[in-house]
Amino acid sequence: MSNSVIQIDDISKRYRLGVIGGRRLVDDVNRAWAKLRGRPDPLSKVGSGENMAAGVPGDELWALRNVSLKIEQGEALGIIGRNGAGKSTLLKILSRITAPTSGEIRLKGRIASLLEVGTGFHPELTGRENVFLNGAILGMTKDEIRKRFDEIVTFSDVERFIDTPVKRYSSGMKVRLAFAVAAHLEAEILIVDEVLAVGDAEFQKKCLGKMGDVTSQGRTVLFVSHNMAAVQALCQTAVFLEGGRLTETGEPSAIVSKYLSSSVTREQFREWEEPEAAPGNDVLRVSRLSVSSEDDPESRLITMRSSVNVETGFWSLSGGRMCHLTFHLLNEQGIIVLTTASTPRKYAPGEYVAKFRIPGGLLNSGVYSLKLLIVENGRPTFKGPGIASFSVVDISPNSNSGLRREPGVIQPELVWEVRQAGDGRTASKRVEAQI
Questions:
Q1: Which of 112-126, 140-154, 226-240, 287-301 has the lowest mean pLDDT?
Q2: Staple 244 to which of 86, 91, 101, 130, CB 3.0 to 4.6 Å?
Q3: What is the C-alpha separation between 369 and 10, in angstroms, rounded?
Q4: Residue 1 has what DSSP assignment?
């Protein structure tokens, strides 16, 4: 394997929906007896319509399909993809929790896995006892645990409660202790699956720092997360899983952009072929509406630094009436972030195109919707909520934005000036403000 510690060759994992394996010998005997008599499988899923005796296979789900990957020593690899893409299945196969249907994996070194928060923790045992129990499950010897016990407890910030039963811990305390045990195992490979989703911002920073230390020591990290900025900050390489297949491998920022652009809502681009089915009234009706980044109009990815172009095509059905279009931009809480309107005028019958631009460096990350109003003589005669929606994402690897979304309806770039009192020299810096 040369310098690689993980070699994945054409791995596939298939599940058969509705097929239940027998847990006892009598279950297997009953299944075989039903098959000989031409009867349905007694262990099949109720209502599945499956008849194993008739040779009808159950529904198949390929969680992974022909995945090949080589991971070098000391590499931090980010694995991203939508829910159900196969990320956790891949990590479970690498951790030997489940076996692949086909393919081969070659590993070099000991693996520390943190896939399910608190796995192996017994609620009736104290934090101290669970450190030893969980460490043993992960492969640590008792001497190793004793040697690192103080570091583990200090890292987890649960010193005061280390002799308290874990059942009285909050979810955050439990995940801190579980991560601390796994992070202090001197394994060549550390596998982490969406652990940072539970801890607070301060602990997330500490986890990222610890994983960075692990890679600097020449050990390998496999990191699954929906926190795109954290993936970019920690990882040197990223892979994009989609539908169980490995679709892209490369530099994290490029892979993150591809993932985000593939997952943005389709409501950014809408079109109506006939006026009768289009939103509007007897004066104006919308024929199409598109929301795109000025930097890359063909992409659906809109970042916090992108200028946003909103283009509206509409039919004028009745000439001679003074009217105009108004758009309200609403955030996830339904708060109106801004309002913009075209110039009132009389439109002759025909088709028109209107366009406005939201400058970059203004909107905070989140999901936004556009509400359309048709206004005649200062009075709205049509209101179309949710006519389009789009996402604004923060893909900058900045340590602050990477761990949590900053508060505020908008997040503009403002110019600050800082100077020493009594000194004419001024230092200016562009920084983000939260309003």
A1: 112-126
A2: 86
A3: 42
A4: -
CA distances to 160, 190, 395 from 200, in Å: 18, 21, 20
CA distance 64 to 91: 11
Nearest to 111 by CA among 246, 240, 5: 5
Which residues are within 8 A (CB) of 251 and not within 5 positions of it... i.e. 6 or more apart? Answer: 237, 238
Residue 408 phi, psi (nearest 5): 125, 145
In one-letter notation, the amino acid at residue 100 is P
Helix (H) or strand (E) holding 93: helix 87-94
CA distance 340 to 328: 7
- CA atoms within 13 A of residue 343's CA, in its CB half-sphere: 1
Cα separations (Å) of 207 from 79, 102, 110, 400, 406? Answer: 17, 34, 20, 14, 20
For 400-431, write each residue's pLDDT tens digit: 444 456 778 888 888 888 888 876 555 555 54
* Partners of residue 83 on adjacent β-strands: none
User: 117 with 178: CB under 8 angstroms?
Assistant: yes
- Which pair of tokens denotes residue 212? 């960075």
> CA–CA separation, 63 vs 60, rounded Å?
9
Closest CA to 312 of 292, 339, 298: 292
Tokens of 23: 């847990």
pTM of the full structure: 0.64
**Locus of tokens 């610890």:** 210
Does the domain at 66-261 match CATH 3.40.50.300? Answer given as: yes
CA 368 – CA 382 distance, rounded (Å): 20
Check: CB of residue 239 under 8 Å from CB of residue 69: yes
User: Whole-angstrom Cα distance, residue 22 to residue 427?
Assistant: 73
How crowded is residue 319: how many other Cβ atoms within 10 Å of its Cβ?
11
Phi, psi dihedrals of residue 248, rounded to the nearest 5°: -155, 140
pLDDT over 70 (residue 193): yes
More confident position, 204 or 409: 409
Residue 26 has pLDDT above 80, yes or no: no
Q: pLDDT tens, 67-96?
A: 999 998 888 899 988 888 888 899 889 888
Query: From the centroid of its chain, how far is CA 340?
Result: 32
CA nearest to 177, candidates 159, 202, 200: 159
The radius of gyration computed from the CA coordinates of the chain, to the nearest angstrom, equals 28
CATH number of 266-392: 2.70.50.60
